[in-house]
Design the sequence.
């Protein structure tokens, strides 16, 4: 099956994962109002008139941390740029576009063209940000959308399809990456955890699928929630296991919607000291190769 790769890049929290869920008409990418939600790139495929479009979500990295995890997140989007057929640089109404200039330069270094798209236009009806955006990026046009209000996305989709046709993009014939499924499931469990825990805790945790068996009626999935401190383990388990139970219920619902079938999900909380700097743990989770 030939697929056209559409890579979505941009600062954290601009709505990259939200846009992908909208295109796919399905909740398969982690969405949250917290910064640095997405940790790993995932592919989401849709079919349109026999054209298979693979939307690739990326972590929006503008992190200052210098641990191994942050480095992996920062390099994630650029790793996929060279193979992308189309790149969407997603941004939002804001005062400065310094981060977008950096991404644009990265795209140009890879010898690629991009579609500039501004999401969250529902938050700024004045449009005053447009001059700064155009001057900063040296362009004179962009797509303006609001995923939340369903504005402009059909036009963006048409733009993508027109580009596929006008540039004669045929797509590539690649085997579906088995790892992608695992990555999406890990991210959905993280989404449930983000929804149930407060403050910084989601940043201190990771999810590793330790066991996955496909069965005819319901798949069996076991996942470790990795934390670095005993007191984080206590918080995630909660009083009489209430917290982990609720995380599990929501995660199961999200995964069942994604897979379109029933699953049996078991969650375990595991303490791994300084896991963000542990190459073995990061490799197991798929954050580094
Ligand atoms: N007001 C408004 N909020 C939006 C819109 N689209 C997405 N959001 C919200 O913006 C927040 C961030 O959305 P995400 O899709 O997780 O952002 P992201 O770019 O994937 O972020 P990272 O994964 O951290 O890089 C969520 O709370 C969304 O509900 C929009 O059009 N308008
Ligand atoms: Mg995201």
Sequence:
């Amino acid at each position: 099956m030939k697929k056209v790769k559409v890579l979505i890049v941009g600062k954290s929290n601009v709505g990259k994962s939200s846009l992908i869920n909208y295109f796919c008409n399905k909740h398969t990418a982690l969405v949250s109002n917290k910064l640095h939600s997405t940790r790993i790139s995932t592919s989401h495929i849709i079919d349109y008139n026999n054209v298979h479009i693979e939307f690739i979500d990326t972590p929006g990295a503008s992190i200052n941390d210098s641990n191994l995890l942050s480095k992996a997140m920062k390099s994630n989007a650029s790793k996929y740029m060279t193979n992308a057929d189309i790149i969407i640089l997603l941004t939002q109404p804001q005062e400065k576009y310094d981060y977008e200039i950096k991404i644009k330069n990265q795209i140009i270094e890879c010898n690629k063209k991009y579609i500039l798209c501004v999401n969250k236009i529902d938050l700024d009806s004045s449009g005053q940000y447009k001059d700064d955006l155009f001057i900063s990026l040296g362009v004179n046009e962009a797509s303006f959308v609001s995923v939340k209000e369903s504005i402009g996305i059909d036009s963006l989709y048409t733009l993508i399809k027109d580009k596929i046709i006008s540039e004669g993009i045929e797509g590539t014939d690649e085997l579906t990456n088995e790892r992608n499924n695992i990555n999406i499931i890990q991210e959905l469990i993280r989404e449930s955890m983000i929804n149930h825990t407060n403050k910084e805790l989601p940043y201190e945790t990771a999810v590793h699928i330790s066991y996955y068996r496909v069965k005819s009626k319901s798949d069996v999935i076991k996942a470790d929630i990795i934390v670095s401190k005993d007191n984080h383990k206590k918080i995630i388990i909660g009083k009489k296991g209430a917290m982990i139970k609720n995380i599990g219920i929501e995660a199961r619902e999200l995964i069942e919607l994604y897979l379109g079938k029933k699953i049996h999900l078991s969650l375990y909380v595991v303490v791994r000291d300084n896991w963000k700097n542990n190459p073995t743990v990061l490799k197991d989770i798929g954050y580094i190769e």
About this structure: The chain has two domains: 2-173, 178-285. Residues 10, 12-18, 31-33, 35-38, 59-60, 119-120, 122-123, 146-148 surround guanosine-5'-triphosphate (ligand 1) (CB under 6 Å). The CA atoms of residues 237 and 256 lie 22 Å apart.
